[in-house]
Every structure is written in C-alpha cells, then in structure tokens.
Amino acid sequence: MSDNLGNLELIHVFYWLKELLLSTGLGEPYVTIVSYVVLGAVTFGVLALLALFLVWWERKIAAHIQQRFGPMRTGWHGWYQTIMDAVKLLQKEDVRVDKRDKFVFFWAPVVCFVAAFLAYVVMPFGNQLIVADLSIGILYVLAVTTFTVISLLMAGWGSNNKYALLGGMRSAAQVVSYEVPMVAAILTVIVYVGSLSMVDIVEAQSGLFINWFIFKLPFGPIAFIVYIIAATAEANRVPFDIPEAEQELVAGFNIEYSGMKFAMFFLAEFVNMFTVSAIAVTLFFGGWNGVFLPSWVWFLGKTFLVVLLLMMFRWTYPRLRVDQLMEFAWKFLVPLAFANLILGSIMKYLGWYW
Amino acid sequence: MGKLKTEEFVVNMGPVHPATHGVCRLMLTMDGEKVVKIEPVIGYLHRAIEKVCENRTYPQCIPMMDRFEYVTSMSTNQVFSQACERLAEIEVPERAEYLRVIMLELNRIASHLIFYGTTAMDMGALTPFLYGLRERELIIDLFEMTCGQRLTYNYIRIGGVSKDIPKEFIPKCREALDIIEGKLVDYEGLLNENPIWLIRTKGIGHLPAELATSFGVSGPVLRASGVDYDIRRDDPYSIYDRFDWKVAVCQNGDCYDRYLLRLEEIRQSISIVRQALDGLPEGNIKAKVSPKFKPPVGEVYSRIENSRGEMGVYIQSDGTTKPLRVKCRGGSYNQLQALPYFGTGGLVADLVAIFATLDVILPEVDR
Which of B96, B129, B158, B345 is the most exposed place for a label (fewest CB within 10 A)? Predict the structure, then answer.
C-alpha cells in the first residue's frame, strides 16, 4: 500500500490509524481490510460532499446566468441549501409504482450510485494521492462509467412507464454512440503516453503548462473538444440530455422515483459530471501538475473549471433532437475522432512532436 | 435479415405534462420515437364561462372574461366591451381609445415575451425563459400601477376604461419600451443563429397556408404561413387605423418563422405604443354608461386581433341587464384542431417544438 500512498499530510493520518489498529492486536490481513474500508469511506465522503457542493454551485451559476440570485436563505448565499434538500428528500415517502419490476426498480438507483463512484478508484487526486494505481487505469474508468447506462435502462424498464422506458432506450443509444468518439479521443493520448495507467498519463505531462496534452499533442485541442462533447453526452447534460428531456419525457428514466432513490440518481448525475471533468483534466490539462500550490488544489481547481464549462453549456444551449444527436455522433464526431487518432499516430511514429 | 417488427403504442401526453402549457391532453400513437397520430383531448380546463355570463349583468361579465384568456386579459376585456358598445352604439372617448390601444399592445408584448421564454424552454434552453419573464415584469408593473392587478385586469370597461393612468406611467412606459427593445437584440443573439436552435426549428412543423385557412387558424401562426391577414388592419377596430405600423408576415410556415414573426411583432407593438403615447389626448376616460346597462334587443359579433389570433365574442341580447347568450372564440382552439393534420411524422421532440410555437393556451381552448 505504501507504494501507492505517498508522503502527503493526509497520508500520515492514514498510517497513524493503521498503527493504532496494529497496536490493538489485530492481525495484518484484518488491519489491511479495515484500512481499505476506511480509505473507501473517506473517498466516498469527499465525493458526496463534492456532489453536494456541485449541486449548489450549479444552482448559483444558473441563477447568475439568468440574472437572479438562486438559493440565498440557508446560510451565506445559501451554501447548505443542498443539504437541506437532501434532508427533505430523505423524509419523503418512497412512492412505489404498483406494477413495477420490483427487483430492477429497487436496484437501479443503487447501481447508478455505485457506478458513479467506481471510477474514483484510479483517479489521481494529487501527487501520489490515488486509491490504487491500476496498470489499466483509463480502461477501467471507461468500463465502469458505462455501468451508468445499465442503471438507466434498469430504471426505464423497472418503472413500467412509457416515458421512463423511452428515456432508458434513449440513454442506451446515446451512451453507446458517444462512447466511440470518446474512446478514440482518449486513445490519441494513450498513443503518446504508451501506458494506460492514470499516474503515467499525469507524469507524462509534468513540467510547464506547455507540456499538457492539449498543447503538446498534435491536434490536441481537437481531441479535447471531441472528448468534452462526448463527455457531455455521457453525463446526460444539455445539449445532450435527451434521456431526461423534461419537456418531452417529463423526467425520463427517473419519472417514477421519489425520495432518496431520486436523490441517488440526482447525486450520481453530479458525480458523473465531476468524473468526466476529472478525466478531462487528467488527460488534457496535466492532472495535478502545477506550481506553488499543493497538487490536489491544482487538480480540483482545474476540474472545477471544466465543470464550469459544462454548466455554461447547460444554461445556454437548447436541446438536440434524438436523431440529430445520433447524426452528430456518427457523421461528425466519429470520423473526426478517428482522423485525429490516425494522424496523431502517424506523427508519433515519425517523431513529429516535441 | 428481415425487417424488425415494430409495434405502435399510445402515449398520453398530458393532461399534466410540462410541454402542454396547462392541461391539454394529446393522445399520441407512436412508433418508437415517431409520432404517427395525434388526438387532442380538450376540456380539462372547462369552466363554463359562456354559461356563467348568462347569469351576470354585462359589467359583471368582464371579470369573467379575464379568465377566458388570462395571458392577455386586456384583449378579452376589449373584445367584450367592444361588443357591448356596438350593441348599444356607445361612443368611446378619445383618451379612452388611446389608453386601450396602449394597454392592448403592451399586453401583446407581454404575451409574446412569454412565448419566447416557454418556446425556448420547451426545446431545452432554460435561460431565455427567465429573460422573457424578466422583461414581462416591467409591463406587468405598468398594469399594476394603472389598475392594481397583475394578471386579470378588468380594466377596459363598457364605454371606456376603469381608471386613468397615473402621472408616472408615461415616463415609466417609455423606459420599459426602451429596455425591451434593447433586450430584443439579446434574445435574437441568444437563439436566432444558434445552430442547435436552427436545426430544431427550421423546416419543422410546416403548416401550409391552405390547411391553416381551412381550419380558421389566425394570428401569428397564420401570418407565419404567408397569409397577410391582420384584423387590426383588415377590419379596424378602436383606433388602429391612425398608427403607422406594418403587419409582419413570414413565408415558410415552420417553427422558426413562427418564432421570428413574434419577435417582429414585439417591435411593431413597441412602435404602436410609442405613437399612442405621443398622441395621447386629454379628456374623459369613460362614456356615461349606467350600471344597469341594458343594450337593445339584437345580436353582435365583435372580434379583435389577439396575440393568439382572432378573438371574438358573440352576444345575443334580449334587452335585459343580462346577455341571453355569449359565445367566445379563441385562436388557440383552431390551432389545436389543425395540429393533428400537420404535426405528425416527426419525433416527439418535434411535436413539442410545434406545440410550443403554436402558442396554445388552454383556458382559451376550453373556456
């Protein structure tokens, strides 16, 4: 474990905890298990707080774009509004449709919630601040983020509601389509790094900002734009939020969910948004690389900037139609992404890059 | 590989649905995402306004009329008062006519601002909604200043208007018009050339002129289909013939034209209000009309150009203080009836766009 965890301040607390557990006379395997559980819980807690913060932040951004105040009553500029909302949702009655598919209906929000957090196992929050540096890091992220679509399909099917089913089908089609350009854009980076590990990707961009892949790669901006468009679609946000298109499908896949189950979908959406932004930062903006400030501050700061970009998309654009969305993916993004990948690979082979 | 077997299914869009602006129910037969058949089911907002009017005196009918079309209730006041005036041949004072035109046009602007906001919102852009309502607020404040009400005004009465405008109305009104005119540029900048907006609206929901006229569609929807017809010009009422303005007409009859046309109408209305403010004479605001208003025996149909098309009221009088029969006509009703004939063939998202640009409001359909 010490290979993965470095010399950051927080890590000392972790070691102190491990020492404490060992001194109580627990055996080594148990201590490891307990330590990992604590580590997971801390990661989960931080992310849950981040999601709560993002909800509040989005509301404030939206409000200021629309020239209003947004939440103002709960604390300074309504900072604990989301917490109050979560408390309210916890108290609400859990309304269940009579003719639902019980098993699927119950597990859909759970799968969605879990899938949203899985990607953080390999997320490099800072210098050596990573839960596990898997050698297949980015591949693992791509694999687990796609889990979300299964949960949306489950919700759509289990609700026994036509709108929900339409939403589920739409999201399946959308995520499958946008996965292709997304992977192609990520591959452009992988070709240059020569490794799937997240830590390797970040370390390949160390140094000045000129080493970030968005500047360093040939056509790096194109790869980033393709990625960010596909990521917006992955996170189901405007202009690609057709699975939950309010005015067409009322609420889409989560139409029959209420109370905490709805909150789980809702928070998962924000965690997903943070995930895709964090991957964008890791791949294109040098991850935690930066000067003066601690590495995790750089990582979070950059990620919040990308999140801000996604939020500004949401509050300025209308929504695409479902067939236009597919057309855009297959006729424009996929060719662009692959052309970029092929050109980038050729230039890598010939050594035409710095 | 053989063709996949698909099955049509029925989706009830409404009566409670975010995109139906109230309680309209569209029974959609769908083939996957494609809308095969639309069947509007109306009546969820029926309040029997016409019947209620039969048991009320004429002045008491005007507040009922406010509820007939509450987005532009100045128009409903005007159309009913105008019918009564024609029935009893009452001469409306000059100042009252000017005030009426100012209020009617301001209300048209307010209604089109709501249209701008809700249409954009139906296509997923949430910000324009707030912008539209923000500018509408200026107009609503003017109304509140004048008659104390923000939605159902009961302002235009038989023979004139209920109250004169306060002193600060005219400068405030000019200021509001300037702001709205400036913000129109923002509105257009936000949507007019937005590529997503263009592919969502251009060529979507084409309403041919023949279909529109055969269904009695009127107002902006008709003019967007290329028919140059505006009751304010073609069958002048009040004092519209004194102002210099143009009837906005578009040719394509798709969602984009219906949207553009309404923005242009806001400009024309601003021009009319400015001219009316300039020419506003001093004088009496109400002709002398007895509270026990008794029109002579007879019948009358009065119509005006509302922001949703022709709004008409038919009154049959038996010479007592209460009307024998009142019949209201709203533009939304005809537009909704035409919808099944040109709204099919697209996806659900297209239908939402079409429904939004028709600017149907349900109180006018159901009455």
Answer: B345
